[in-house]
Write a structure and sequence with these properties.
mainly alpha; 11 helices; globular
């Protein structure tokens, strides 16, 4: 009994430490105070100022760049990562282990090393830094996470179904589209959301590959931090948190429904 209470207490304490800063930002996004911790009364002025104030233009450009890069990078990395996961899964056991190890290296590698490496790569090929180089860089570091998300779905899949589809006259491409892709689709969605979130969150790699013309939200906030972070960022952070939370809840609901349908089909 005591052990159970201690474990639950530790869990709630950990959750409190993780989410308390977010909730504090959300609370102070509904006041006009320019200093965090100074409550001056309930107000939604920060939200209106976010879209109409003096920093509107630079912030909107940064938000547009951030979400456009994240969407393109997540879409491309989901396609590439899913194909790579299928290829790795069908390799021989020893070769598969080597490829899984190679796929894990970029995830464990320091962001600054990846950023500098990509920066030198683009410079050596004479590629001008900008929106395109950031997208390519984000695809590079997001793809291994998609592979990691899709691989468990492939391991759980019944391989006999794919072979049965081939025996019944389906081409390999038809079997891929009608058998494998529906099975790994939840993993692809999870990989897409993870890649999208990682792309939005990234600063170091974007900083080395964006150049002077392109700025993401993290880069704008970093430049603000040298002087003073505008309180409108509290409102923007709240909006982004709620949007990402809604996406995650929707994804989990879809996974839950798919699982219940599979259970009913099995019965």
């Amino acid at each position: 009994m005591v052990k159970k209470i201690l474990c639950q207490g530790y869990l709630w304490l950990l959750l409190l430490l993780l989410y308390a800063p977010i909730f504090i930002i959300m609370i102070y996004s509904f006041t006009e105070a320019k200093v965090l911790g100074n409550w001056t009364g309930f107000s939604t002025k920060l939200y209106s100022s976010l879209f109409t104030g003096g920093m509107h233009h630079s912030l909107m450009n940064a938000i547009w760049n951030t979400f456009a890069i994240a969407l393109l990078a997540a879409t491309a990395s989901t396609a590439l990562g899913s194909i790579a996961a299928i290829g790795i899964f069908n390799l021989r056991s020893r070769t598969r282990q080597v490829m899984n190890f190679a796929n894990a290296i970029p995830m464990m590698n320091a962001d600054i090393i990846t950023g500098v490496s990509l920066f030198l790569l683009f410079v050596s090929f004479g590629i001008s830094q900008g929106f395109t180089t950031v997208v390519l860089a984000h695809i590079t570091f997001c793809t291994p996470y998609v592979v990691l998300s899709v691989m468990p779905r492939l391991k759980k899949m019944n391989q006999n179904v794919y072979e049965a589809a081939l025996d019944l006259g389906a081409t390999p491409f038809q079997a891929l589209c009608k058998v494998i892709l529906p099975e790994i689709f939840p993993g692809m969605i999870s990989g897409f959301i993870l890649a999208f979130t990682l792309s939005i969150d990234d600063f170091v790699i974007s900083y080395f590959t964006a150049g002077a013309q392109t700025q993401t939200l993290s880069m704008v906030i970093y430049s603000m931090a040298k002087k003073r972070v505008s309180p409108e960022i509290n409102a923007l952070s709240t909006i982004m948190f709620l949007v990402i939370l809604a996406i995650i809840l929707t994804s989990n609901a879809m996974d839950s429904r798919a699982y219940k349908r599979n259970q009913k089909a099995i019965r």
